[in-house]
Amino acid sequence: MPIVADFYQKITKQASTVLQHDLIDVVRTKMSERDPIYRSVYVVDQNNKLLGIITLREILKVLAIRKGVSGNRSLSRGKLLDYISQGTPAGDVMKAPISVRKTNTLEEALELMVRHDIEEIPVVDAQGKVIGDLNAFELVREME
Protein backbone atom coordinates (compact mmCIF):
# COMPACT_ATOMS: atom_id res chain seq x y z
CA MET A 1 0.00 0.00 0.00
CA PRO A 2 1.50 3.40 -0.98
CA ILE A 3 2.58 5.65 1.88
CA VAL A 4 3.09 9.41 2.20
CA ALA A 5 6.91 9.08 2.35
CA ASP A 6 6.96 7.82 -1.25
CA PHE A 7 5.15 10.83 -2.71
CA TYR A 8 5.04 13.87 -0.46
CA GLN A 9 7.71 16.12 -2.00
CA LYS A 10 7.31 15.51 -5.70
CA ILE A 11 5.60 18.84 -6.46
CA THR A 12 6.07 21.04 -3.41
CA LYS A 13 9.68 20.61 -2.34
CA GLN A 14 9.39 22.73 0.80
CA ALA A 15 6.32 23.53 2.87
CA SER A 16 5.46 27.20 3.33
CA THR A 17 5.43 28.22 6.98
CA VAL A 18 4.83 31.34 9.04
CA LEU A 19 5.05 32.06 12.74
CA GLN A 20 1.83 32.61 14.68
CA HIS A 21 2.72 36.28 15.20
CA ASP A 22 3.32 36.99 11.48
CA LEU A 23 0.70 39.31 10.03
CA ILE A 24 -1.99 38.21 7.59
CA ASP A 25 -0.37 40.16 4.74
CA VAL A 26 2.82 38.09 5.23
CA VAL A 27 0.70 34.95 4.83
CA ARG A 28 -0.90 36.32 1.64
CA THR A 29 2.52 37.13 0.20
CA LYS A 30 3.91 33.68 1.08
CA MET A 31 0.99 32.01 -0.66
CA SER A 32 1.63 33.80 -3.93
CA GLU A 33 5.42 34.15 -4.03
CA ARG A 34 6.46 30.76 -5.37
CA ASP A 35 5.75 28.40 -8.19
CA PRO A 36 3.82 26.23 -7.60
CA ILE A 37 1.56 28.65 -5.79
CA TYR A 38 0.73 27.45 -2.29
CA ARG A 39 -2.88 26.78 -1.36
CA SER A 40 -1.95 26.47 2.33
CA VAL A 41 0.53 28.00 4.73
CA TYR A 42 1.37 26.22 7.96
CA VAL A 43 1.56 28.18 11.19
CA VAL A 44 4.46 26.95 13.32
CA ASP A 45 6.23 27.91 16.53
CA GLN A 46 9.93 28.83 16.76
CA ASN A 47 10.82 25.10 16.73
CA ASN A 48 8.84 24.48 13.52
CA LYS A 49 6.11 22.59 15.41
CA LEU A 50 2.75 22.74 13.64
CA LEU A 51 0.18 24.97 15.36
CA GLY A 52 -2.39 25.41 12.60
CA ILE A 53 -3.18 25.82 8.91
CA ILE A 54 -4.25 28.83 6.87
CA THR A 55 -5.77 27.89 3.54
CA LEU A 56 -6.28 29.97 0.45
CA ARG A 57 -9.99 29.99 1.34
CA GLU A 58 -9.28 31.88 4.60
CA ILE A 59 -7.16 34.42 2.71
CA LEU A 60 -9.94 34.89 0.13
CA LYS A 61 -12.37 35.60 2.97
CA VAL A 62 -10.03 38.23 4.39
CA LEU A 63 -9.58 39.89 0.99
CA ALA A 64 -13.33 39.78 0.28
CA ILE A 65 -14.12 41.39 3.61
CA ARG A 66 -11.56 44.14 3.01
CA LYS A 67 -13.17 44.84 -0.37
CA GLY A 68 -16.71 44.75 1.01
CA VAL A 69 -17.71 41.55 -0.80
CA SER A 70 -20.22 39.50 1.17
CA GLY A 71 -20.74 35.82 0.65
CA ASN A 72 -20.22 34.04 3.94
CA ARG A 73 -23.05 34.75 6.32
CA SER A 74 -21.86 32.12 8.82
CA LEU A 75 -19.20 34.43 10.29
CA SER A 76 -20.33 36.76 13.05
CA ARG A 77 -19.97 40.52 12.57
CA GLY A 78 -17.35 40.64 15.33
CA LYS A 79 -15.27 37.92 13.68
CA LEU A 80 -15.53 39.70 10.32
CA LEU A 81 -14.20 42.90 11.84
CA ASP A 82 -11.27 40.99 13.32
CA TYR A 83 -10.34 39.73 9.85
CA ILE A 84 -10.32 43.18 8.31
CA SER A 85 -7.29 44.45 10.21
CA GLN A 86 -3.99 44.28 8.35
CA GLY A 87 -2.43 43.81 11.76
CA THR A 88 -4.20 40.49 12.31
CA PRO A 89 -1.66 37.79 13.23
CA ALA A 90 -1.65 34.40 11.51
CA GLY A 91 -2.51 32.71 14.79
CA ASP A 92 -5.90 34.46 14.81
CA VAL A 93 -6.89 33.18 11.36
CA MET A 94 -5.52 29.64 11.37
CA LYS A 95 -7.55 26.46 11.44
CA ALA A 96 -6.76 23.67 13.88
CA PRO A 97 -3.75 21.59 12.86
CA ILE A 98 -4.39 18.60 10.62
CA SER A 99 -1.41 16.52 9.53
CA VAL A 100 -0.02 13.19 8.43
CA ARG A 101 3.27 11.43 9.02
CA LYS A 102 5.47 9.81 6.40
CA THR A 103 4.20 6.39 7.50
CA ASN A 104 0.51 7.18 6.84
CA THR A 105 -1.03 5.66 3.74
CA LEU A 106 -2.09 7.82 0.82
CA GLU A 107 -5.67 6.71 1.50
CA GLU A 108 -5.44 8.08 5.05
CA ALA A 109 -4.07 11.37 3.73
CA LEU A 110 -6.84 11.55 1.13
CA GLU A 111 -9.51 10.91 3.77
CA LEU A 112 -8.21 13.78 5.94
CA MET A 113 -7.96 16.14 2.97
CA VAL A 114 -11.53 15.42 1.88
CA ARG A 115 -12.95 15.55 5.43
CA HIS A 116 -11.29 18.90 6.15
CA ASP A 117 -11.70 20.36 2.65
CA ILE A 118 -7.99 21.08 2.12
CA GLU A 119 -5.78 20.65 -0.96
CA GLU A 120 -2.48 20.33 0.90
CA ILE A 121 -1.71 18.60 4.16
CA PRO A 122 1.41 19.06 6.24
CA VAL A 123 3.71 16.12 6.85
CA VAL A 124 5.13 16.16 10.37
CA ASP A 125 7.72 14.13 12.24
CA ALA A 126 7.18 12.36 15.58
CA GLN A 127 7.59 15.67 17.45
CA GLY A 128 4.97 17.42 15.31
CA LYS A 129 7.53 19.47 13.36
CA VAL A 130 6.68 20.28 9.74
CA ILE A 131 9.00 18.39 7.37
CA GLY A 132 7.03 18.89 4.14
CA ASP A 133 3.55 18.66 2.71
CA LEU A 134 1.47 16.43 0.50
CA ASN A 135 -0.23 18.20 -2.36
CA ALA A 136 -3.58 17.13 -3.85
CA PHE A 137 -1.91 16.90 -7.27
CA GLU A 138 0.59 14.40 -5.86
CA LEU A 139 -2.36 12.27 -4.75
CA VAL A 140 -4.16 12.60 -8.08
CA ARG A 141 -1.04 11.47 -9.94
CA GLU A 142 -0.46 8.43 -7.76
CA MET A 143 -3.88 7.09 -6.79
CA GLU A 144 -6.07 4.97 -9.00
How would you summarize this macromolecular structure in one to three sentences?
The protein is built from five helices and five strands; from the N terminus they run βαββαααββα. The protein has 144 residues and is an alpha+beta fold. This is Putative signal-transduction protein with CBS domains.
List the helices and strands and how they pair.
Elements: E1 17-19, H1 24-32, E2 40-44, E3 50-55, H2 56-67, H3 77-84, H4 106-115, E4 120-124, E5 130-135, H5 136-142
Parallel strand pairs: 1-2
Antiparallel strand pairs: 2-3, 4-5
Helix pairs in contact: 2-3
Keywords: CBS domain
Protein name: Putative signal-transduction protein with CBS domains
Domain CBS: 11-74, 93-144
Structural account:
The chain is α+β, with helices and mostly antiparallel strands. The protein has a single domain (4-142), classed as CBS-domain (Roll), CATH 3.10.580. Helix content is 32%, strand content 17%. The protein contains five helices and five strands; from the N terminus they run βαββαααββα. It has helices at residues 24-32, 56-67, 77-84, 106-115, 136-142; strands at residues 17-19, 40-44, 50-55, 120-124, 130-135. The strands form two sheets. The chain has a three-stranded mixed sheet. The protein has a two-stranded antiparallel sheet with strand order 4-5. The longest helix is centred in the middle third of the chain and has 12 residues, at 56-67. The protein is globular. The mean pLDDT is 81.
